[in-house]
Each structure stands twice: as structure tokens, then as C-alpha cells.
Amino acid sequence: MTSKSGIHEKNLEKIFYPDSVAIIGANKVRGTVPHDILDNILKADFNGIVFPVSPKEKFIAGIKAYKYVLDIEDPVDLAILVFPASVCHMALEQCGQKGIKSAIIISAGFKEVGGEGVERENQIKAIADKYGLSFIGPNCLGVINTDPQSRINASFARKMPEEGSIAFLSQSGALCTAVLDYAQAKHIGFSKFISFGNKADISEIDLLYYLKDDPKTKVILMYLEEVSNGNALMKAARDVIAGSGKPILILKSGRTSEGASAAASHTGSLAGSDEICAAAFRQAGIIRCSDIEEMFNIAIAFAYQPPPNTNNIAIITNAGGPGVLATDAAIHDGLKLATFADKTTAILKKNLPRTANINNPVDVIGDARADRYNIALSAAFDDPAVEAVFVILTPQSMTEIDLIAREVAKVSSHYDKPVYASFMGEADVQEGIEVLQRNKIPHYPLPEDMCKAVATVYKFHQEKHDAGDNIASFDDVRIDNARAILEHAAAQNEPFLTEDTALKVFAAYGLPVMESYLATNQEEAVQFAEKSSYPVVMKVMSQDIIHKYDLGGVALDLKSATEVEAAYNTMMNNIRTRQPDANIKGVLVRKMIPKGQEVILGVKRDPSFNSVLMFGLGGIFVEVFRDVSFRIAPVSEREACAMIDETKSSALLKGARGQAIRDIPAVVEAIQRLSQLACDCPQIKELDINPLIVLEEGRGCFVADAKIMINHTVKSS
Amino acid sequence: MTSKSGIHEKNLEKIFYPDSVAIIGANKVRGTVPHDILDNILKADFNGIVFPVSPKEKFIAGIKAYKYVLDIEDPVDLAILVFPASVCHMALEQCGQKGIKSAIIISAGFKEVGGEGVERENQIKAIADKYGLSFIGPNCLGVINTDPQSRINASFARKMPEEGSIAFLSQSGALCTAVLDYAQAKHIGFSKFISFGNKADISEIDLLYYLKDDPKTKVILMYLEEVSNGNALMKAARDVIAGSGKPILILKSGRTSEGASAAASHTGSLAGSDEICAAAFRQAGIIRCSDIEEMFNIAIAFAYQPPPNTNNIAIITNAGGPGVLATDAAIHDGLKLATFADKTTAILKKNLPRTANINNPVDVIGDARADRYNIALSAAFDDPAVEAVFVILTPQSMTEIDLIAREVAKVSSHYDKPVYASFMGEADVQEGIEVLQRNKIPHYPLPEDMCKAVATVYKFHQEKHDAGDNIASFDDVRIDNARAILEHAAAQNEPFLTEDTALKVFAAYGLPVMESYLATNQEEAVQFAEKSSYPVVMKVMSQDIIHKYDLGGVALDLKSATEVEAAYNTMMNNIRTRQPDANIKGVLVRKMIPKGQEVILGVKRDPSFNSVLMFGLGGIFVEVFRDVSFRIAPVSEREACAMIDETKSSALLKGARGQAIRDIPAVVEAIQRLSQLACDCPQIKELDINPLIVLEEGRGCFVADAKIMINHTVKSS
């Protein structure tokens, strides 16, 4: 699909800005999709020519109809297919012959129904590829562009939305109808509105890139059910955010549908698909929303107002209770109540009644009319310590709701600072809310929602957004070495690498391992131990032994040749007695790693995001607290640091409770090297370094035990 | 205040059901409070007689006015005071003389303005006490009773709400206006609507007891800014819930206003006022809401539908995306998707189109009209595995919104099972929503809110609610002993008890302490160590030494008389060198406690809830993870168990990661004994047992170190 992205780029322009449109399968039956689409295009006053194509009708809605698209003499920029799925391929073939490069396939009955639907979808994809044609759908509601230059409602939605700067993309067509209704009632406008359905050709990735450069779009919203190519989505999101500064808000469903799959590693069992998705979105700078309302709450804050440069807000209210609720919420969400300058307090004191609260939150008191709001608003906006103004109103008996809304619009228009409002209630406050909405002042029914939305905007602008290209690449790695080992194991059908072999893979990637030796007899073990230095550890290596500790296959802290000899014999006796048929490769001997803080590093494969990295502190912190962090590989140094910082227990690496400060930079490097290994070697199915022992500052960290599970179905690219 | 509760009980009846009302301070000026209240009473068609009292007017609104309340010849049940604060006391005095027992004081200008306002409030309280009169307010919006038997709108709210089974109490009058507006638009009715203002006389506690027995009220909602008497609130809540089954929902503001106060103990620094409030509410069975919308979302689920007996729900939707969102939310909130009986699937398969999803969540597909909803609804309700039905709708082009809403109402009326709906959108779905609202089918704009509300109802009905009277009382405690020690320390102005004395207090309450001895010389130390058994520990005891470890004032694991002697000398040398002017009480000698799991128990005083207990595992679990739990004393055995279970790290007591299983029953008993101590001895300001060492099953637990801070301003009751 990515190979077509260059083609899509050109063709997408004609989906949103066609000079001429053919509606293939149009009819005269009111209340059917084919009819409603034509009707919608005509009603929206499309800035171009429409050609109905119908096998039966000579004209529809007073417009000449064509039997086939090929019968149209004029050029056609965009084809909208509303034929039954079974005949779509024929219509699309003719579109190709006609030289049409852009299409919207509304028709359902493809991949989503399984069976022959899948074949049909492949068929239309093949036709599109043959003709270099790009299409949206199938199985979608259609596409809307409110830009007066085009003004096309190529959808069977009930309504045409207002013009605006929010782009909305949705994998669910049905949700679109609810969103359009919701948005219309709140005067929320859209730049582009796209139901992309099965995304058989043009995907959400292509659309993100298109919207990045769309001058009409300031904020991008998406409802997504399935992340098909997580890495491409992350890359696109980073490119859009870093390149255009446009925020991307995604509502992702399917949170609970897949439990963490049964897995052979810690990393496998801890990384549920939803945790991974959450980590990936955060990493790419995507704002994940928990419902449609939250999504639009945040979107209007982005779309209507400049971002707050600091988190110092002023609250103006005519009701004490809601003022307290707003203060609670603001502090909770990371905002601050600005401390007013003396001048501000003086103005408020002079002009507000004695019972008013002249400090932040300012309470202009229940009987306040518009003039008092004016005084408080002007004073707050004028105060250099105030970065954003929050206006709260409850409908009390003397409240001039409509006038106060106008006052908010008027006063705020003289300042560059953002303003937000919450007029609480419903029917009585409606006329005021309409004034706010028409003046693009973000309105929230609850002060709590206002605080949450603004805090999200503030945080987004505080974060550094890069295109994800500042990834360190270690050029001392021996990629061929690692791959050769992994491919050999795969060829031998080995389910996992024994530790001696895993250590070789790590060594090839510069991960910190202590020198070790695979002894095949007692003498070799002693010889290596003497050459190295005591104490040493020994572990039996065998593909047949999963739990070597339980079988007595591990000996620690051996301090002399005598102890090594004795331990070697005991170990062999243990195995011979307890698992006599185990095929023993040898005994791994290495110097024992000094005491330090144990951490876990892991890699897991995810069907959407490929290489997932995990970090956590060993033992109870992982098992009981699940205090772990995830990132999608590759990770930058900053992200590797953040992985560590994100866990609460990392305090122990930093010297909490009188512990030694550990060599965190060494761990950061290990995470980055592991990231590179995970990306380079798809043969690694899952991987646990458990533990990595982290020594004191400057003394490094070392792999003390590790497991690499092999994927037998992939090859290096 | 509690002493008046018997009086309030009788007088409250007349506040809600008066046969005659005097409005004292009424006037003819439209748009003022005194006028609007009279107007509201008349407009609402009050079932009784109104007497305006006005110093100036002969009549108001066609009704004869009286100069003084004493001029009214007929009996008056309820006085509503709308005079300025400065003259309220005179009016109230006359009410008392007239024999009026119930009043609502609307007027502001009392405690809330400070200074002379506080005096005024005390003045009216005194008058009320003198005449055995009860009043609501001052500084409130008033009271509404929708019951046709009374139908009184004794408030200056803009509107009279519909009749309903929800009672709403609010400390903020201004918030009431927003709530009334919000509720009216959603056809939410109220049984009683009460703005209680400064609660100078009748408090939220009195009102809770009144509403417990009010046959018109099924659910109680409260907005609260300040918990004046937390223990009374908890008791009232428990009495209401256990006695009547009515749920209590509270929106409590001021969450972030007070940070955890700087404190000398772990318990002090960890227990912020909001955490304590949250724990207290949970303990009392109160449902804490995070905003007004959530509060009403839950309230209508309680008020309109029977509670679900199991968490097995069915979802019926005409839109796949929202179906997935609802499923996500339901699972997340602890609900389950029922597995349909074969019969159900067969009916759905036969009667729904081929492309429909006949499993749960049932997707009747975008073009569904009312008939398909009927089929799916009936099948779901008929299925014995289904306990509750969730209906979702998006406004697609063929959706019969109004008819489908009627279908939901009709079908569900034949079953005892609860039904809930989410018609997504806004304007287009409005007529359907009105149908649902009129038929008391709880409606939610978002499926996520629906799931959260229903899950809350389900959990409330699953929980055991008792009146809090099953508290174990240990009769082997020596309360006088403990108090004598504490009072002595208070008299000596000692800021804290040294460990030797603290252990005596614990011993008096049967808390597990090892025998110890306060040696004043080397010989005594050795003597006790020999008599006890080795190893022993020694700690220097001094009011002047806070950090005895740092000064070398602690010696552990002493295995012989020689070691004890040596350690004693070293310790004395250490102190003499490092803190020469410390006044040394002696050296505490006791047998060393064997290794075990260290936990912390603590007590803190809270201005609202008095005795707060804390439990946590020692070290990093408290300091880094803040993995602690709180309860208000006294606690039952069940609550003590829950305190332990609530912490994640308690897994370590239960044998996680191959650890020994610890003597949890001993900890449960220790918590209960500590609870009794905290309640009995107000002289304890703060207390830390850190650590309590918990041995293996059946071997008990022991206090290894402890601190008791003394409160010098209280006496035992």
C-alpha cells in the first residue's frame, strides 16, 4: 500500500476537490443510498458538474443520466460507486477505462462479510492498481468537504456540516451519523469529514498525510477500530505533528477485546494489546480520547483558541460551588490559579460588591449582571500573570445569560489570550451557549470538562514533538553474527536459545555480558573458572530443560576449583536423576555478577506495532505492581530514559531510601541496543533479560539471565 | 446539634408539608428574591394558605399582607424569612412568640461573610433554641417539595421541577439553579429539592434522616463543600442505606484545597483530607461522584429501573462502532456480555438480515427500522441469561428514531428486567430521547456513561451495607492505664511518648508487644537480657533524641552478656559525644523479634472524621508507591481485612513470589485493637507503628518500633 502513497497524494486532491463527479448506480427512489447521495451533492450546492450513471433511468432529479460511465463525453474527476457489491468491479473497470483516477466506493458487502466478500475486495483492489486509481472504502458513508471551493457532500449522511477547521475520519460509518448530529447541534464545523470504511486502498495513513497539508484543517480527529500498520501510523502521526503542528486525536475501540495472549515470557504476559496501543500513541504524540464527547471537548479548544503558553488561569464565576468544582478540577489536571497583580485586585475591589470574591477564582456573586462580568473579564485579561480565562455561569434569577455571553465574546476579542466557558444548566442557558458557539468560544456543560480539555491542549504544546528520526544507530553491532545464530536456531526448529547462545546474540549487539564459557566437562569448567576469577556461577544448558533452577541445574557463588568440581558433579547427578533423557549441551561458566538492582528488559512482537520493548524493576515490582513501561522500537535516547522514569520503582535506581545510585546511563544504552536488535532481527519472537543487574554509578550493568524465543516463520528482510 | 435532632424530626415535616406559610419580608418588586418566592409558591399551586408579611404593603399579589407575623390570627406552620440579615433575628423572635416551629431563612449575610455575620448567625441559633424552632439556612435558595399533597416551591429558583423520586440537597444555592435547569431539560423529577446553605440549625445529617423515611424519595443526591461532622455523616449514611436501601450519592468539592498537612508521621503525611474523605464515603456506602452529570447519570439508573441482579447484559445496536465502544466500556466497568441461549440466537438468525450480528452485542445493522429493534429486544429480554438490556441507536438515514424509542418503552414494560438506552447524536435523536425520558427509561448521550452508571448501581446492590454497628469491642483492654499514661505525658508537655512508654499504652490495649525493660545502667540491661533470651536489641530512650539510629542510640542482634555490656558502653559514649545535653531516660532492652514481613499501622486525627487508621507494607511500598489504605475508626473485622486486601503489596503477606504466608489474622486483630485505642484516647494526636513485624501463620505479629504524638488540648470524654 505504501508504494501507492505517491499516487494517492495526487488522487486524493480529486476526491476532495473534483471538478466533475459521476454517481454510478444512482436512482430515483427517495430514502435509498443511491438517491440520497445525489440529493446531498445537489443540496450542498456542489461547485462542479454531477453526472448520474444509471442503467435504467434517462434522467434523475432533472439531470441527464448516462447508462455507463464510458458514455460521459466530458472528463470525470471522481466516481462514486453505489452499485451492489457484486457488480462494483465492472463499474470500477469502466472507471479505469475512462481514465478516472479517484473513487469513493460506498457499497457494502466486501471484506466485512467474509467469504466471497474478501475476494470481491481483492478484485477491486487489483483493478484500482491496474489503472493507478485510488479509492476510499468500500463499506463507508462517504466523504464531505465543506471548503466553498468544492463544497461536496459525497455521502449519504442526513446533513451537511458547517464549515470549520476540524477534520474527522472514521472507520465506522454509523458513528459518523451520530457525530454529525452531535456537531451540528453544537455548531461545530468540519474541514473534511471522511468515512473510510474497509480502507482497502486509501488508508488512514494516506489521509493523515493529505490532511497535514490541507490548509483548511487545524485539528485531526479519528475513530479507529483496528490499527493495521501501527508503525506507519506512528510515523505518519509524527510527520503530521512535527511538520504541521496539527494535533491528532484518536478514539480507539476494541480496548478489551483481546486479553494479553498466553505467553512464555514476562514481557508477553504483561503487554496487553491495549497497553501497547496506549504506549504507541503516547510515543507518537497522538492524544488518545476515551469517548466522542471528550474528543470534541479537546478539539474545539484546539480549533477555536490559541494555545495557553503557561498553565496560569483565571476563573470568573457567579456561583461559589461551581467555582470550587472548577478549581478542584484545574489543579487536579495540572493547571494553576494565577496570583493576581495588586492592580487587578484593586480594580476588582473597587468595582465589585463587598461580598464578591476578588481573588482567583473571582466570584462576581449570584446577582451579577453583564457589567460585573465585564469588569472581572477585563481585569483578568489585563493581568500579565493570567494566561487563559475560564468563565462560569449558572442561571440565577437576575443572570443576563445572553448579554454575558456577548460580553465574553466582546472582551476576549481584544486579547490574544484564550478564553473558555461553562454555562451550567441546559434550557435556560441555551441562548447564551449559542452566542458562545457562534463566536467560537469553546463551551463545556461542566467546568470539569473545560479544565480537562484545556489541560490537554496545554500539555500537547509543552511536549516536544519530533518526527521520530533521532534514533541512535550503534555501528559497532555485528548484525550478521546475530542473524546467523538466530537463523540457525530457526532452521534447527529450536523453540528458544539457551543462555550461552543468547549471550552471543547480545554480545553481537554490544549488550553488556560477562565473558562466559560453555564447558563440556569438569576440567574445562575449572580451567575457565581459574582463568576468569572467583566467584563464578554455573548453569546447565539444554533445550530440554526449561526450569533449570528447579532441577538443580544452577550453582552460584563458587569460590574455588574444589567448589567448581563439586558443583559440576552434583549438577550432573541432579540432571541424570531428575531428567535422565535431557540432551545436555554443556555447562555455562561465568564470573558472578556483583550485587546490584535487578531490572527486566523485554521484547515482544505485536501484530500492529511489531517490536514492543518493556522495562521494569525485577521481582515484586513487575509481578505484583505491574510497574512496567512500554515503547515501540526503535526508541531514541530520550524515550529510553522516559521508559525508566515512567516506572515508580525506578526511584530505587536513583537512590531512594538510602540505596546506592545505579548506573542509569548504562541501562539507557542497553535499552537502545536492545531496540536496534529487535528491529534488525525479526526471528526474535519474544525476549526476556531477567534480570539485568545494574551496578553503582559508572560501573555498568550486566545480563544475568536471558531467554530468546524463536519465530520460525520469518526471515530477515 | 444532635441534641436537637428529635425536635428537627417533627419540625422538618412542617417545612415540607406546611398547612400555612408566612413569607416574612415579602414585597411587590418583580425580580427581587422576596417577590419571587411568593410568586413561586403561588405559581406552583401550593396546597395550603400563604400569608405575606410586609412592614410596608397592605396586600401583595392580591393577597392580604400583615405588618408582623404576630398579626396573623390563624396558626402558621412555616415561616420563610427574606428580610435583610440585620433584622432577621427580630423577625425570628416574633416567629418564636407566635409558636412557629419551622422556618427557612433565605437571607444571606451571616457566617459566610465573617465578622458580625458570625454573631448574627449565633443570635438566630440562640433564638431558635429558645423556642424549639428548627430552621433551614441561612444563605440558601430555599426548599421545594413536589409532592401534590403539599406542592410547595419555597425558593427563588427560576422553575418548579417535575415530580420524581430523586431528592437533591445542596450546600451551594447557585449550583441549584444550574441543576434545576439541567434536570428540567432531561425530564428528571425530584421528590424534595433542598438548598441548605450555612446549615446553622438543620444540617445535611438531619435531612438524611428525614429523607430515609420519606416515601416519595428513592435516591438521595447531595452537593457538599464541607464535612462538618464526618462521623455523624457516616452514621447517618449507614442508617439510611441499611434501613431503607436508598442510595446516597455525594459530589464533594474542595478536593484539592488542602494539601496533606506537614506532619511528623508517615500516617500524617500520607493521609490527605481528600483521601480520607474518599475512604470514609466508601466505608459508609456513599457513592462519590466526580461531577453533576455523573451524579444524575447514576441517579436515574437507580430511580427509574430495578437494579440488575447479575452483571450479564445484552447490547442491541444499529451501529457497529458504538457497539464496540459500549462493549469496551462494559467490560472495563465490570459488566459482562451475556452468552445467549441457543433459542435466542435461533430467533435472531431467523428474523434479522444475514449481515446482522446475532451474537451479543447484537447489531441490527444501519438500515434497521423499529421492527428489527422489536425482534432483538424481545429475544434479549426473553433470554434467561440476560439480566439487563442496553439499547444503542445512531441516527442513520432510515432509522425510525421516535418509533424505536416507543418500541423500547413498550417491550421493556412487559419485563421486570432493567433497560437503558443511548441514542447518540443530538438534534436528530431528540424526539426519541424525549420518548425515553417520559417513559422513565434512563438515557445517556454516550454508551460509556450508560455502562458506568449501570455498573455503579450493580456494585451498590452487590455490596453489603450494614449500619456500622458490628464493631468488635475488646473487653480485656485497660483503658484507664492507657489514659493515665497519655494524660501524664500531656501534663508534662511531652510532645511524644518514648518507645518504652508507648509500648505500655499498646500493652494496655492488647497490641502485641514483646516484654521489655527500661534499664538505667549496664547491669540492669545485662540482667534483663539474661532473664529474657538472646538475641536482644537495645535503644536509648530520651525525649530529646528524635533520630536515635543516627546518633548510634540503637544496637541490634546482641547475642551475649558481653555484647550487651559493650553495646551499652558504646551507646552511652555515642550519645555523650554527639548530643551531650540529652536527658536520657534509660535504655530499652527487649528480645529481638524474628525476621518477618514489616507493615505499618498508623493513626491520624482529621478535623472532619476524627480517628483515621492507616495500613501499608513498610519501606518502598509506602514511600515510593504510596500503597496504603485508610479507614475511619472504629472498624469492624471485615473492614480491617479490607484495609489489608486493598493494598497491592499485601500479596506479600499472602505468599506471593514464594514468600511465607504471614499471620494475617493477627494483623486484623491489631488493627481492630488500634481502632479501639484511637477512639478511646483523644490524647493521641498521631501514631505510627513502624514496623509491625508479621511472622508466619499462627506465630503472630509484634510491634518493633512505635511513636505516639501527644495532643495537649483534649481530655478524655
Helix count of chain A, per DSSP? 23
Supply the helix-strand structural class of chain A: alpha/beta
Which parts of chain A are unreliable, with pLDDT below 50 for 5 consecutive residues or more?
257-266
Highest-level CATH class of the largest domain in chain A: Alpha Beta
**Biggest sheet details of chain A:** 7 strands, mixed
Overall mean confidence score, pLDDT of chain A: 92
CATH superfamily annotation of the largest domain in chain A: NAD(P)-binding Rossmann-like Domain
- Sheet-strand content of chain A, in percent, reads 15-25%
Distance between the termini of chain A: 18 Å
Q: Helical proportion of chain A?
A: 25-40%
List the domain count of chain A as a whole number.
4
C-alpha Rg of chain A, in Å? 32 Å
Assembly classification: homodimer
Please give the order of strands in the largest beta sheet of chain A.
9-8-11-10-12-13-14
Query: Most extensive interface, residues per chain?
Result: A-B, 77 and 77 residues
For the secondary structure, the number of strands of chain A is 30
> CATH architecture of the largest domain in chain A, please?
3-Layer(aba) Sandwich
Q: Estimate the global geometry of chain A from the Cα principal axes.
A: flat
Classify the fold: give the CATH topology of the largest domain in chain A.
Answer: Rossmann fold
